[in-house]
Design a protein that fits this description.
By secondary structure, this protein is mainly alpha-helical. It has one domain. Helix 5 packs parallel to helix 9. The longest helix has 24 residues. It is globular.
Length: about 220
Amino acid sequence: MGGLTIGAIGGLIGLGGAEFRLPLLIGLFRFRALEAVILNKAMSLIVVATALPFRTATVPFSDIGAQWPIIVNLLAGSLIGAWVGAGWATRISSRSLYRVLAILMALIAVALFFGHGSAATSAALTGPWLIAAGVVAGFAIGVVAALMGVAGGELLIPTLVLLFGADIKLAGSLSLAVSLPTMIVGFMRYSRDDAFSVISRHKAFVVVMALGSIVGAFIGG
């Protein structure tokens, strides 16, 4: 039921719901901070991997592939950021991680409040400046996504619209195309930590909540 509700809220506003899932994992189910982040990452991977094909009815793969320079530009930063962010999360203390997550959740709330409804008709920069800005933005988004176990769409979509001038519907699919490899890199880094065993210990929980999130996202969308 928790996954269904979270998925419905996320689908309603155009996200995967991981931002809402994380407080639930920590507050209701009492997982430790790092365990909650890893579980959130596992469920987010499942939801994002299924959401991209779902969106082909609105945005076909050919339209996504045509924008490969933007995808590569952001991935150049986000893949490194995901590895760095996940490594940082495994090294800091639980107390510090709780504080970092609280700050990031507050910043995500601000981004959602002021970012939705954003629109742009052209890229904010051109040439090397646009490429450099894309790498920096991708790195920051990769760090945040890895630290929280989220896909990063709440930051990727405004970046794609405002920085690259992408159409809002196309930005949603491009966000998923960037998020998936970014999340896989973060997931691989987390797999090297002892806390990663939380997935095998709660495998049924992961599957049930992820399935609920997928169904909820479809309903919310």
